[in-house]
Amino acid sequence: MTTPIEHFHPFVPAGGVGSRLWPLSRADAPKFLLDLTGSGSSLLRATYDRLAPLSGGRVMVVTGRTHAPAVSAQLPELAAADLVLEPSPKDSAAAIGLACMLLLRRDPEAIVGSFAADHVIQPAAAFQEVVREAVAAAASGRIVTIGIPPTSPATGFGYIRAGAPLGLEAAPHALQVEEFVEKPDEETARAYVAGGDYTWNAGMFVAPAALLLAHLRRSEPELHAGLAEIADAWGTLAQDEVVDRVWPGLPKTAIDYAVAEPAAAAGDVAMVPATFTWDDVGDFAAIHRLNRVDPAGDSDVAVLGENTRVLADASSGVVVSDTGRLVALIGVEDIVVVDTPDALLVTTREHAQRVKDAVNSLKRSGDTDVL
Amino acid sequence: MTTPIEHFHPFVPAGGVGSRLWPLSRADAPKFLLDLTGSGSSLLRATYDRLAPLSGGRVMVVTGRTHAPAVSAQLPELAAADLVLEPSPKDSAAAIGLACMLLLRRDPEAIVGSFAADHVIQPAAAFQEVVREAVAAAASGRIVTIGIPPTSPATGFGYIRAGAPLGLEAAPHALQVEEFVEKPDEETARAYVAGGDYTWNAGMFVAPAALLLAHLRRSEPELHAGLAEIADAWGTLAQDEVVDRVWPGLPKTAIDYAVAEPAAAAGDVAMVPATFTWDDVGDFAAIHRLNRVDPAGDSDVAVLGENTRVLADASSGVVVSDTGRLVALIGVEDIVVVDTPDALLVTTREHAQRVKDAVNSLKRSGDTDVL
């Protein structure tokens, strides 16, 4: 059994539709609310369940106002005080900064952890041990990111360049972070992977709330001041008025620019490498990876969806269906079929990344009823 | 305007589900009842409309009992006496033989014409002129088939080998038929097409009813006797009793074996070449050919179905939908997507012929609810 970690306060920024997973993901059914692994749990629910044992059951969720009912329904044990609602999307620095301020008010020694709501991680025990080490490293006064050892020269992620071991007894695998680097081209990515000093930046980090906010104040003073005004009013009769007045004017920026990169330049960032498998379920090629191929079938077709009947002849790929219809595939290789009541997508694993372009194209053409 | 041809009695054997067009075609919605060209008319309706002007408006339809309501609804002007219902499928010789007997009783000088219910022919005027010539040739005491000049070395059709011109004044293009040949392999088909003596056998023919039945009596005496017993009872109080007693025991055979081939061997068959375009809509590759590509789209996707929204990105092929759903195609070439309320097919134009195997596989697995 995992024991709770003192002063550790995890939170989950749950935003982003995940439009590369359209038409499965929708504005009102974003990726984090979906079960994409056939496990019976949504990605958010699984994220919550991985974190709760580390913090005595309390996990804060920061999400959009429109998702409050669905989040509450999926997490019935979530305390009202742990459901932080954004009136509108303001990128990650605002959401994370507000969570840090609220948790710092709850616990002046708070070590916070930020974990995306829509990643798949296995096994939970390995994840928890890595977080435990990251918290220990953070207690030494650092922002500690969890790096994912790369399994391919991916060009869709930022990378973390690590340096020397920190030599911390409670965090033996923690390394100094030299720098965060942007998404590379493929040649650069190959060099990163071959070199061994680079891990993928999955956006997971653990840090003393006070340290993180000090960096935020330095690099984004306007954002910090606005969030502080909101945090001061939080839980008072003035909350709604202040949020509605201040939030819309907050600068939109990512936590990477506002905190991670300047903190790394200041020598304040460490990294603990992951010992678990990690997938950001970035597109339908990932859905194929994460779902078992029907062992009874004579073809390599992964199926996601209950009561889905698939007839596959000389075909491979993935079928996602929530309509109960029979899906017949004949002579189609590496196909992706996503079957929903009002929209049908047919593409290939190779083109799975282009689904986002289709969503943008639907936006432009005014077909927003299916988004 | 086309004037009616004296003693000419066309009929339409309307049978066959067209399982290569599943899931569009179903047991209760066979191919001939469908609009496969986006014209607004079913194939049966269009066939009827091409024939009716040649016979003063009377066209006989021979179909399965279960299709009677749909056929009557599509052909409201069809006289009850012209709707001949088979209690069960017995292949083409029984259906055609019965139609000939009933028409011979109506007109002892009947020249009948048999035309499939599920072919696409353009333009109607050219078709009518060819039929007129075929009737003239048939009046000389021959079974006259209409040959389709081949546009490719197709291996899915039988071929007709023609010989010398008949030299008939009223049928200047009519040629003697030397033989009917079975579906060839591709090499043989290439030789047929290159040689110039061969046309496709589309199963359309015109003949004196008495001559056709004489051949049937010679080659299939049992079938002929059974049909004669049914025809004698037709229109009397005994009709149902006799049909239900005799029909189930009739031999199952194709008109090609029962009449066309022996008649050709006897020198009784002629051929008039078609001057119209012809398509048997044999599979979804044909649906692609017969339906206009959306001129507004930037991709080569043909769409069949009302109110179908298709978003195509770097894709080509055909979408058939009657669900009103948005269909998004991304990076799929020569794709075939058939979208119905209870079944979805994804294949390619190349594999379109294999749809029949999928239907057989569904029969074996007991998934008959979608057939």
UniProtKB/TrEMBL annotation, chains A, B:
The keyword Transferase applies. GO terms for molecular function: mannose-1-phosphate guanylyltransferase (GTP) activity. The keyword Transferase applies. InterPro entries: GMPP_N, ManC/GMP-like_b-helix, Mannose-6P_isomerase_type2, NTP_transferase_dom, Nucleotide-diphossugar_trans. GO terms for biological process: GDP-mannose biosynthetic process. PANTHER family: MANNOSE-1-PHOSPHATE GUANYLYLTRANSFERASE (PTHR46390:SF1). This is Mannose-1-phosphate guanyltransferase. It comes from Kocuria flava.
